[in-house]
Design goal:
mainly alpha; 8 helices; about 0% strand; globular
């Protein structure tokens, strides 16, 4: 059984589904209408997410914040990064967009900051959305698909990014379901995202 998950009543499932719908709608509304005018508006969404977790008394294991499942998550995340990196590196090399350079201090600082941003995304996507969907949906396979679709749709209208994040979202949701650790997922997301940035137009 997934840590912290107990059988849910119909009312509890409905509330969880409403939460997912509300947060997803708020994210889309922010991205499409208010992100330029209110750049820190996403903090309101984060406050709602944190309040929901506190009210439910969710523990760090359920949220994927502990280090207990690091090894398993690292193993599967590394495999996912490798599978994603091979075609990206090949494409980037063929189009002369990639080269071998030692990263300087600024590049390392920028990447470290990006890992933090990816951790925040995984916190919202896995620790919150994944858990609420698992509370709302009786079948775990539907949860994986739903998380992937949500992650992909948040990257519209860029077709390449939407397709990449749909596949990545499915993979990360499956890894989280088996090994609850958002830190390895955040690192993997940052690595693949950086490769996409430097390899593709």
């Amino acid at each position: 059984m997934v840590p912290g998950h107990q059988p849910q009543s119909l009312t509890s499932r409905a509330i969880a589904a409403l939460e997912v719908a509300a947060v997803f709608a708020a994210c889309q509304l922010f991205l499409w209408r208010y992100s330029q005018r209110y750049r820190r508006g996403w903090l309101l969404i984060l406050v709602f997410i944190l309040a929901s977790m506190l009210i439910r008394g969710e523990r760090v294991d359920k949220l994927g914040l502990s280090l207990r499942h690091t090894l398993g998550a690292a193993r599967w995340t590394a495999l996912g990064v490798l599978l994603a990196a091979l075609p990206l590196v090949a494409y980037g090399a063929l189009n002369r967009k990639l080269g071998l350079l030692l990263p300087d201090a600024d590049a390392l600082a920028q990447f470290t900051g990006y890992v933090g941003w990816c951790a925040l995304q995984q916190f919202a996507l896995q620790s919150y959305m994944h858990n609420r969907l698992r509370d709302a949906l009786p079948r775990s396979r539907g949860v994986t698909v739903a998380v992937g679709v949500i992650f992909g749709s948040l990257h519209l209208p860029n077709p390449a990014l939407t397709a990449a994040t749909l596949v990545g979202g499915l993979a990360m949701a499956e890894i989280f379901a088996r090994h609850r650790n958002i830190w390895m997922l955040a690192l993997g997301q940052a690595l693949v995202s950086t490769l996409i940035l430097v390899s593709l137009p």
